[in-house]
């Protein structure tokens, strides 16, 4: 899988070099390419933003650098993947479709994703129109209902969610199988050894007896009950 990211703040993407994603890159499962939007601004000050037409607070990203950057990124990707290759171009956007686990699954089957990270108040609307008219596949996706300063943190989260689903990336394939069988409820409580633990304040805290019983049916029933109770308490929306 190839992932391109266009951003003004490439340093934000440094965590993608680490851990799981870094390993996927070193193993050749992931090609990650970060591009500086500023390279596609050609005036003396390399300007990428301007005041909003119609008035309003803050600044808006100019369409020119974005159109040029995305054209260049698509051309470079095609030179490597083949001239027929077509990326999904994703704009993280607080007004986008919610990014969910189902999105991560669908996108993990894509050979090529280009992420376009906006900043300021967002990007001139004509960029999306231009791309759609050029026949490009475009998605606006939101990480969640809160306001970030730009798309970079959303790209980190989305990339991690997507790439860990690519076959060969997550070390423990059994974890992914268990995940795919999870019934849309929250996870049950987890414990490890010791079965009886003395907390720093002297309190003795035991693992629930049922988990030590060796009775796999009772354990499964207890976990299912815990999952349901937690979901009712913390995420009633998942039960509706
Ligand atoms: C991309 C620029 C910053 C900040 C104004 C007024 C109510 C805010 C854009 N889940 C997510 N949250 N935020 C983003 C995200 C934020 C971005 C950009 C993604 C590009 N910004 C910004 C304020 C405003 N709005 C009305 C909401 C807009 C995101 C994702 N994905």
What are the salient characteristics of this protein?
alpha/beta, binds ligand JEK, 240 residues, two-stranded antiparallel ribbon, single chain
List the helices and strands and how they pair.
Elements: E1 2-7, H1 19-26, E2 31-36, E3 49-50, E4 60-61, H2 63-81, E5 88-98, H3 101-108, E6 112-116, H4 126-133, E7 137-142, H5 152-163, H6 173-181, E8 196-198, E9 204-206, H7 216-234
Parallel strand pairs: 1-2, 1-6, 5-6, 5-7
Antiparallel strand pairs: 3-4, 8-9
Helix pairs in contact: 2-4, 3-5
The structure holds ligand JEK.
Ligand JEK binds next to strand 5.
How would you describe this protein?
With 240 residues, this protein is α/β, with parallel strands linked by helices. It is 35% helix and 18% strand. The chain is built from 7 helices and 9 strands. The chain has helices at residues 19-26, 63-81, 101-108, 126-133, 152-163, 173-181, 216-234; strands spanning 2-7, 31-36, 49-50, 60-61, 88-98, 112-116, 137-142, 196-198, 204-206. Strands 2-1-6-5-7 form a 5-stranded parallel sheet. The protein has a two-stranded antiparallel ribbon with strand order 3-4. Strands 8-9 form a two-stranded antiparallel sheet. Bound molecules: ligand JEK. The site of ligand JEK has 18 residues, from β5. Ligand JEK is lined by residues 92-94, 118-122, 142-144, 146-151, 154.
């Amino acid at each position: 899988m190839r992932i391109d990211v266009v951003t003004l703040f490439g340093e934000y993407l440094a965590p993608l070099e680490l851990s799981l994603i870094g390993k996927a890159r070193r193993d050749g499962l992931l090609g990650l390419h970060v591009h500086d939007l500023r390279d596609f601004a050609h005036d003396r000050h390399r300007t990428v933003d301007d005041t909003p037409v119609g008035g309003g607070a803050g600044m808006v990203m100019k369409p020119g650098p974005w159109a040029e950057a995305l054209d260049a990124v698509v051309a470079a990707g095609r030179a490597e993947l083949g001239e027929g290759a077509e990326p999904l171009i994703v704009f993280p956007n607080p007004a986008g479709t919610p990014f969910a686990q189902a999105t991560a699954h669908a996108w993990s089957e894509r050979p090529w994703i280009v992420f376009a990270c906006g900043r300021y108040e967002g990007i001139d609307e004509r960029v999306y129109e231009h791309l759609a008219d050029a026949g490009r596949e475009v998605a606006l996706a939101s990480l969640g209902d809160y306001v970030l300063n730009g798309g970079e943190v959303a790209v980190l989260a989305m990339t991690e969610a997507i790439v860990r689903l690519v076959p060969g990336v997550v070390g423990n394939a059994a974890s992914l199988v268990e995940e795919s069988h999870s019934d849309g409820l929250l996870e049950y409580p987890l414990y490890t050894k010791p079965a009886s633990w003395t907390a720093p304040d002297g309190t003795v805290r035991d693992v629930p007896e049922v988990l030590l019983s060796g009775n796999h049916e009772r354990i499964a029933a207890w976990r299912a009950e815990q999952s349901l109770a937690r979901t009712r308490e913390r995420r009633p929306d998942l039960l509706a």
